[in-house]
Specification:
seven-stranded antiparallel sheet, Thrombin, subunit H, 3 domains, 13 helices, globular, 34% strand, alpha+beta, Pdz3 Domain, 501 residues
Length: 501
C-alpha cells in the first residue's frame, strides 16, 4: 500500500543507495558540458529544427539551475534519536538493510544501531540577503544543532527563527550579508502542465536538480498534523532529503517548498505552494510565530444527501456541523446546517477549502461569506479574529468542572440522554457535550454526542472516571472506546505534553 512520506533524510541511509538515477547540475558542471558540446565536429542545429528547439529548452533548464542553485542549501540536523528513528520507520525505504530501518534491531552503536543524538538532513532555500532560510518544520523539529551547507560548500551554524507545524514550514537563520535570495512565484501564475524544477539534496546528494511538471493543484493528502493542505503535485523526482528545497518555474521563481512523496519512485510528490509558504515565512521572520484568522466552526464535506436536501446543483461546499459560541462565525449568524460555498473571492468546494480560504485573510478583516441555508443562497459579513492556540481553546472549555485535559466537556448519561441518543435507557457511559476547538480531542475526531465507554481499557461511568483514567495512563495517547450513532469505534487521543506551548 502506498503512503505519504516525509522527505527529510537520515545520513546513515546514504550508504545503501545508488546515486545513478539522480541528475546533479551545478553552474560549473553545466558550463563544462556546454564547452564540450561546442567543440564537437557536428554542425550546430538550426534554431528552427526539433533539435534546436530541444537545445533551447535545455539551455532554459541550465539557466534556472545556475540562477537558483546558489540560493539552495543543504541542512544537516542533530536531533533526538527517537525522532530520527520514527522518521526512518515512517519512510519504509525499500532495499535498505533491516538494521537501518528498525529501531529495535541491534547494531554496533547499541540497541537500534543509533547514537543518542542522530543526524538527519534536508534542504532549504535562502529568501533574504541577510540569511533567512525557508525549509520544512519536519526537517528542523526537535533539532539540537543545525548546520547549513551553502552552494559554495561553506558550513554555517543556524538557529530556528520560528516553526509552523500546521503548514510544515519553518524559518532558520544564518549570519550573512549579500546572500543570493530566491524570488517567490506569483501563486496565481502556477498552472497544471507547467514545467517544475526541484532543487535540493536527496539522499544527501547536494546540488541535485530534477525536472518535471506541475501535475495538479490544491491537493489534500491526508497528513493529519498539517492543518492547511493545498499542495502542488509534481512528477519532478523528489526523494528523502529534498524536504524544504524549492520547486521552481522556468523563471527560477519558487512555486513551492517540497514536502512529501507518495511512496518511493512513484513520481508523485507534493510541495507547499508559495501562497501559503510565503505568507507563513513572512510572519515567522517578523514575529517568530504565525497568527491566523478563524471561523469557529466544526465543518465537513457535503455529501450527496445533504446536497439534495439543500437544493444544491452539486456537492461542492463545506457543511457547518457546529458553531462555537462567541466566535466570528457565531457573531456573523452562521448556523449549523449552512453550506458555505464562497469566502471572499475564493470558491469553497470542501471543508479543507474553507479552512484554507479563511486563513488567507488578515486578522480583523471583514469578509463576505456566501452560503446556502434551507435551499436559499445567503451572504453574511464576518469579521475575522485571531485563531486560538490548542491550549487556549482547550482552557476555555476546561472552565467547566466536568471537563478533562483533552478538551472534552463531559456529562454522566441518564435515561433522558440515552433516549435522545436512541440508546437503551439503562445503558452506561459518559456523553460528550462539547469539544474544544483545536484541542486534542477534536484533532482526534471526537464529536459532541459521542458516548465514551472505555478509556485505556477501563470502563467509565462518570466524567471523574474519564479524568482519572487519563491522568493515570502512562502512555502518550489514550485509546477510547466510543459509541456513535449505534456503532462503536476506538479513537486514540494524544495527551498534551506538560509545559509545552
Amino acid at each position: 500500500m502506498s503512503r505519504t512520506t516525509w522527505m527529510s533524510f537520515g545520513a546513515a541511509a546514504v550508504l545503501g543507495l545508488s546515486a545513478g538515477a539522480v541528475v546533479a547540475v551545478t553552474g560549473t558542471e553545466a558550463k563544462g558540458e556546454s564547452e564540450v558540446g561546442s567543440a564537437a565536429s557536428s554542425p550546430a542545429p538550426s534554431p528552427r529544427s526539433p533539435r534546436g528547439a530541444a537545445r533551447e529548452l535545455e539551455e532554459a533548464f541550465i539557466s534556472v539551475a545556475e540562477q537558483v542553485g546558489p540560493s539552495v542549501v543543504t541542512i544537516r540536523v542533530e536531533a533526538e534519536a527517537r525522532t530520527s528513528r520514527s522518521m526512518r520507520r515512517f519512510f519504509g525505504i525499500p532495499g535498505l538493510p533491516r538494521e537501518w530501518m528498525d529501531p529495535d534491531s541491534e547494531g554496533e552503536e547499541g540497541p537500534g544501531g543509533f547514537d543518542p543524538t542522530e543526524p538527519r538532513g534536508g534542504s532549504g532555500v535562502i529568501v533574504s540577503e541577510d540569511g533567512y532560510i525557508v525549509t520544512n518544520n519536519h526537517v528542523v523539529d526537535d533539532a539540537r544543532e543545525i548546520t547549513v551547507i551553502l552552494s559554495d560548500d561553506r558550513e554555517m551554524k543556524a538557529t530556528v527563527r520560528g516553526t509552523d507545524p500546521e503548514s510544515d514550514i519553518a524559518v532558520i537563520k544564518i549570519d550573512g550579508k549579500g546572500l543570493p535570495a530566491a524570488r517567490w512565484a506569483d501563486p496565481d501564475s502556477i498552472r497544471v502542465g507547467a514545467w517544475a524544477i526541484a532543487l535540493g539534496a536527496p539522499f544527501s546528494l547536494d546540488k541535485t536538480v530534477t525536472i518535471g511538471h506541475v501535475s495538479g493543484l490544491g491537493r489534500k493528502i491526508g497528513i493529519q498534523r498539517i492543518a492547511f493542505q493545498d499542495f502542488i503535485q509534481t512528477d519532478a523526482s523528489i526523494n528523502p532529503g529534498n524536504s524544504g528545497g524549492p520547486l521552481v518555474n522556468l523563471d527560477g521563481e519558487v512555486m513551492g517548498i517540497n514536502t512529501a512523496i507518495l511512496g518511493m519512485g512513484t513520481g508523485v510528490g507534493f510541495a507547499v505552494p508559495s501562497r501559503i509558504a510565503r505568507r507563513v515565512a513572512q510572519q515567522l521572520v517578523a514575529e517568530g510565530k504565525v497568527s491566523r484568522p478563524y471561523l469557529g466552526v466544526k465543518v465537513t464535506d457535503v455529501g450527496p444527501d445533504m446536497a439534495e436536501a439543500q437544493g444544491l446543483a452539486d456537492r461542492h461546499g463545506a457543511l457547518i456541523q457546529q458553531v462555537v459560541p462567541d466566535t466570528p462565525a457565531a457573531k456573523a449568524d452562521i448556523q449549523p446546517g449552512d453550506v458555505v460555498v464562497r469566502v471572499g473571492e475564493d470558491r469553497v468546494s470542501s471543508a479543507q477549502d474553507l479552512v484554507n480560504a479563511v486563513a488567507r485573510h488578515d486578522i480583523g478583516e471583514k469578509v463576505q461569506i456566501e452560503l446556502w441555508r434551507e435551499g436559499k443562497k445567503k451572504t453574511v459579513a464576518m469579521v475575522t479574529a485571531t485563531r486560538p492556540g490548542p491550549e487556549e481553546a482547550t482552557a476555555a472549555v476546561q472552565k467547566s468542572p466536568t471537563t478533562d485535559s483533552l478538551g472534552l466537556e463531559l456529562q454522566r448519561v441518564d435515561p433522558e440522554i440515552n433516549r435522545s441518543l436512541d440508546r437503551d435507557p439503562k445503558a452506561g457511559g459518559v456523553v460528550v457535550r462539547g469539544v474544544a476547538p483545536y484541542g486534542p480531542a477534536q484533532k482526534a475526531g471526537m464529536q459532541a454526542g459521542d458516548v465514551i465507554l472505555k478509556v485505556d481499557g477501563r470502563t467509565v461511568a462518570s466524567p471523574e472516571d474519564v479524568a482519572r483514567a487519563i491522568r493515570e495512563s502512562s502512555k502518550p495517547a489514550v485509546a477510547m472506546l466510543i459509541e456513535r450513532e449505534g456503532g462503536t469505534a476506538f479513537i486514540a487521543v494524544r495527551k498534551p505534553e506538560p509545559g509545552r506551548d
